[in-house]
Design a protein that fits this description.
Blueprint: H1 10-32, H2 37-66, H3 76-91
Helix pairs in contact: 1-2, 2-3
Length: 92
């Protein structure tokens, strides 16, 4: 067992990353097939967005894990984690 905050979310993160891998392979195929460049850029944007969502989930998991403290009132750590994720989301 490890102490990483994403341990409970590991399977979902892996599934998302495998889907992103497929999207990246699809972009390569689009380039090989001479697909219209705007369509390729749309897919690149989708991959970037999907990776950003993975990053945000990792930040959320980390914050929930690291903000967990029995001395903190219930719900406060979760609210702080959500606040952190929202702030980082705006930066991305």
């Amino acid at each position: 067992m490890n102490n990483y905050g994403y341990a409970d979310n590991k399977l979902a993160l892996s599934k998302r990353l495998r889907r992103i891998e497929g999207q990246v392979r699809g972009i390569n195929t689009m380039i090989q097939d001479d697909v219209y460049c705007i369509d390729i850029l749309t897919q690149v944007s989708a991959v970037r967005s999907a990776l950003d969502k993975v990053a945000l989930e990792l930040v959320r998991d980390h914050a929930n894990h690291c903000l967990h403290d029995d001395s903190i009132m219930p719900g406060v750590a979760k609210n702080k984690a959500d606040e952190l994720v929202t702030a980082i989301g705006r930066m991305l």
